[in-house]
Amino acid sequence: MKRVVTALFLVPIAVYSALFAPWWILFTVVAIVALLAFREYASITGSFAPLGYVAGILILAVPTKAPQHETILLIILSTLAAMCLILSANDPAKGFARAAALVLGIVYIFGSWKTGILLHDINPNWLMFGLMVNWIGDTGAFYVGRSFGRHKLAPSVSPGKSWEGAAASVVTGVAAGMIYLPLTIKGTSLLAAGLLALAANIAGQVGDLGESAIKRAAGVKSDPVPNVAS
Q: Could you tell me the pTM of the whole model?
């Protein structure tokens, strides 16, 4: 029920921001979501959050029409700043781990949301396509996995996920993409839409497992009572 209530609240905001809102509203929503995600990530990994916030916002704010080497330069400068944290740490080993986690978080979180902005600037329907494929895929995985999941997908990382749920995510996500993309992006074939949806769905599932692995490695995600959730 909590999942449904959250979706009913957040999905309309996301759809409006992706498809209809002025650019500054989209940027504000993306920036807030990215900052909240990095805040959680920093608390889990112990990385230096203030530097991540500044570097992340700068990466998001780089004009999409500007040469992409500006974004790369920001990432390089962030890495150099993270190396300074190693030098100032009392324990170099811990300092290195925190610095590595900081750079990974900047690239993974803010870099991912930057691609969302880039997709939107090409055509808002591309951003909506990526969001929808993963939303519908997650829904299919949850309900099919809970009802029929028997074979664990990655028990050491996320015991609740099953191969049945993963397959349902692919099927529902690809089906949604093959319907949505040809209707909104003229000239897109069913084959191209299906392959793009497949790639987006798999990337989403791998990213979800990666997040679970980070939480488990940090000791935040404990072993649940065995059940099948997705």
A: 0.85
Quick one: tokens of 137? 């895929």
Structure token digits, residue 71: 């974004």
Residue type, 39: R
| Sign of the CA dihedral running 42, 46, 49, 51 | negative
Name every residue whose Cβ is closer than 8 Å to that of residue 198 and which is 6 or more positions away in sequence.
170, 173, 174, 177
Long-range contacts of 88-91 (CB under 8 A, 24+ apart): none
Domain boundaries, the chain: 1-122, 124-230
pLDDT by residue for the chain (230 residues), tens only, comes to: 566 677 777 889 999 999 999 999 999 999 999 999 999 999 988 887 888 999 999 999 988 666 666 777 778 888 888 777 777 777 777 788 888 889 999 999 999 999 999 999 999 999 999 999 999 999 999 999 988 888 899 888 888 899 999 999 999 999 999 999 999 999 999 999 999 999 999 999 999 998 888 888 777 765 544 443 44
Taking the C-alpha atoms of residue 200 and residue 182, their distance in angstroms, rounded to an integer, is: 16
Distances (CA, A) of 6 to 9, 20, 36: 5, 21, 16
CA distance 139 to 211: 18
Unique residue bearing structure tokens 């498809």 = 19
3-state DSSP percent of the chain in helix, strand and coil, to 5? 80, 5, 20
DSSP state of 205: H
